[in-house]
Amino acid sequence: MEYTTDLEKLKEEVEFTFYKSSGPGGQKKNTTESAVRAVHRPTGITAIATEHRSQARNKALALQRIQERLQALQRPRKPRIPTQPGPAAIQKRKEEKTRQAQKKRLRKKVEPEDW
Q: Does residue 48 lie within any of the structural domains?
């Protein structure tokens, strides 16, 4: 599915929540709601930014992270290329088959010949 990665249009699709960030930083962090949680409504992708003291810088950073994740979603996947097993793997497989065949031969019921 195609999602817009244009920053101006993304701002309309994203819901921002502001809160007080945790961790070291002292009184400045305890009083300001500078941490930002951004949720892209159409996809449910969430990005959090708490690195900076500035709410505006954190908001821009969270928006940039959502943009990167949307671009990664739209990138086409590389097709898986099947590979052939190496000689050692083939030899190991043959040995295992031989062991299984030996077990089956031993399980066979022996018919009594003229006793």
A: yes
Residues counted in the chain? 115
User: Angle at Cα 51 formed by Cα 64 and Cα 58, nearest 5°?
Assistant: 45
- Is 110 part of a structural domain of the chain? no
Res. 16: pLDDT tops 90: yes
Q: Is the pLDDT of residue 3 over 90?
A: no
Residue 85 lies in a domain: no
Q: Is residue 21 part of a domain?
A: yes
Q: Which residues contact 46 (CB under 8 A, 6 or more apart)?
A: 37, 38, 39, 40
pTM of the model: 0.64
Q: What angle do CA 83, 88, 90 make, to 5 degrees?
A: 65
